[in-house]
Design brief:
Blueprint: H1 3-15, H2 34-37, E1 56-57, H3 61-81, E2 133-136, E3 145-148, H4 156-165, E4 170-173, E5 178-179, E6 182-183, E7 194-197, E8 200-209, E9 213-222, E10 231-238, H5 251-263, E11 271-274, H6 280-298, E12 300-301, H7 303-310, H8 321-337, H9 347-356, H10 359-374, H11 389-392
Parallel strand pairs: 3-11, 4-10, 4-11
Antiparallel strand pairs: 1-12, 2-3, 5-6, 7-8, 8-9, 9-10
Helix pairs in contact: 3-8, 6-7, 6-8
Length: about 425
């Protein structure tokens, strides 16, 4: 087998579609109902048994990531594969009830009974307290998040009922409605105007489209609780997650997470986070948020322990070794460069403060900021094309070559 064929087989194994159970219900035309029968590839236990990974002091984080990234991330994969898939004694009785199965987007991604979100029972509708969503703790805050699957058309009413009952003010969406021509999430909000979902009225107040994410603001009111004032619910929709793998850089995700923290009111209910299954990207986002808080409080990073802990609340949280590695890259980016974003409204004040300070202090501050730029790590594996012998002679300065993602390719000349 030549190397090219082997690479194609490896790519296929990594990116093959989720398994579809051929014995499942079919549509009238005999075609499998993909949205119902699609399964998410589950993780297996490490054959070598559980290992213990200790917290990393923040000052050692860069070196630890460098070692784990060697040999195409071999140590990252070993660490990730040492995680247990979930809570051994966890049960899924409510999720597996016949009347609730249609409410699950994927039949093998279900909430535990002990940590599931329980909706208020609707009079005359039994059972009506089930939704595929789980409470997830933050770094120190109990039930800081709700990890949920992307709503289906049949569960949109329940989704908004959960938002209202839990007093949530923020929805974090980490998937697009369709990816690779497959529905990942049903559109559960109106594009404009007002729409009623069950007993919850949702009207669009504002929509701001940015490079990496979109902010939508909704006025939400319960028709049953007419005496209660309407609430503002903000959806932050991260749109830069690629169909395959993880974002090329964690910068967009870090800015997105900062905006989520900024917009979440102090006394609001849990932040509702969802992707499609509610475990992969959802888990990645929650872990980054929690470990950033840990870095501030303890000056250390313990990704392994935290992922293990939240898998006891919802199985399979953080689904791939690529997502696991991305968490570390985001934490390193945050540790090395911090938050350099400056709001336009505060720019003038920032400049005045700089001018009023002692000249030498201003110079030191600017020098330190510029020094961070010179310390930005260059990933050599992203420069392979430019470093080929045939291409190096085309570069005026061999230290300055484009990375693969931004290289402009010209068509081959036909002689």
């Amino acid at each position: 087998m030549n190397r090219k064929s082997f690479s194609r087989i490896t790519w296929f194994r990594r990116h093959r579609k989720a398994v579809v159970n051929s014995g499942d219900k079919k549509m009238p035309n005999g075609i499998l109902e993909e949205q119902e029968q699609q399964r998410v590839m589950l993780l297996s236990r490490s054959p070598s048994g559980p290992k213990k990974y200790f917290p990393i002091p923040v000052e050692n984080l860069e070196e630890e990531i460098r070692m784990r990234s060697a040999d195409e991330g071999k140590l990252f994969r070993e660490e990730f594969n040492s995680l247990t898939p979930g809570y051994v004694q966890g049960t899924f009785e409510m999720a597996n009830k016949e009347e609730n199965r249609e409410k699950n987007r994927y039949p093998n991604i279900l909430p535990y009974d002990h940590s599931r979100v329980i909706l208020t029972q609707i009079d005359g509708v039994s059972p009506s307290d089930y939704i595929n969503a789980s409470y997830i703790d933050g770094y120190k805050e109990k039930n800081k998040f709700i990890a949920a699957q992307g709503p289906k058309q049949e569960t949109v009413n329940d989704f908004w009922r959960m938002i209202w009952e839990q007093k949530s003010a923020i929805i974090v969406m980490l998937t697009n409605l369709k990816e690779r021509k497959e529905e990942k999430c049903y559109q559960y909000w109106p594009d404009q105007g007002c729409w009623t979902y069950g007993n919850i009225r949702v009207s669009v107040e504002d929509c701001i489209v940015l490079v990496d994410y979109t902010i939508r603001k909704f006025c939400v009111q319960s028709l049953h609780d007419g005496c209660k004032a309407p609430r503002l619910v903000t959806q932050l929709h991260f749109t830069s997650w690629p169909d395959f793998g993880v974002p090329f850089t964690p910068i967009g995700m870090l800015k997105f997470l900062k905006k989520v923290k900024t917009l979440n009111p102090a006394h609001a209910g849990p932040i509702v986070v969802h992707c499609s299954a509610g475990v992969g990207r959802t888990g990645t986002f929650i872990v980054i948020d929690a470990i950033m808080d840990m870095m501030h409080a303890e000056q250390k990073v313990d990704v392994f322990e935290f992922v293990s802990r939240i898998r006891n609340q919802r199985p399979q949280m953080v689904q791939t070794d690529m997502q696991y590695s991305f968490i570390y890259q985001a934490l390193l980016e945050y540790y090395l460069y911090g938050d350099t974003e400056l709001d336009v409204s505060s720019l003038e004040k920032h400049l005045q403060t700089s001018h009023n300070a002692a000249p030498n202090l201003v110079k030191i501050g600017l020098e330190e900021e510029f020094k961070k730029l010179t310390n930005v790590r260059i990933m050599k594996e992203n420069m392979r094309t430019g470093n080929l012998p045939a291409n190096m002679k085309k570069a005026r300065v061999i230290q300055i070559i484009p990375c693969k993602r931004s290289t402009f390719y010209i068509s081959k000349q036909v002689l």
